[in-house]
Amino acid sequence: MPARQRPGHTIVALSEALDGAAAPALREHLIGALRRSGRLLILDLGEVASADAAGLAVLVGIQRRAAALGITLRLVAPGHQVAALLRVTALDRALPLYPAPDLHTELAA
Hints:
Layout: E1 3-6, E2 9-18, H1 23-36, E3 40-51, H2 53-68, E4 72-76, H3 80-88, E5 97-98, H4 103-108
Parallel strand pairs: 2-3, 3-4, 4-5
Antiparallel strand pairs: 1-2
Helix pairs in contact: 1-2
């Protein structure tokens, strides 16, 4: 999960599956990214193939931690399955979604 730090923000590219098997390592990695992030943490979901309840729980937990630290969390480029799951669970209302991967530049500006 590579992270690119820029002044004021961090972009973390996630891949594979956001599932129960990946959840513990994902949580720890994202908590570390929060510690190093500026006011904006962007999670690039473009390479995430699927997600389940455990993966979504990690995203919700990170969003809560980010908010408590005054950090804005953005989810960028979710694939069809991930976006659909976020919509069905109504989490798309709590976790801002941005469909295009080229929004990295716009979000960080």
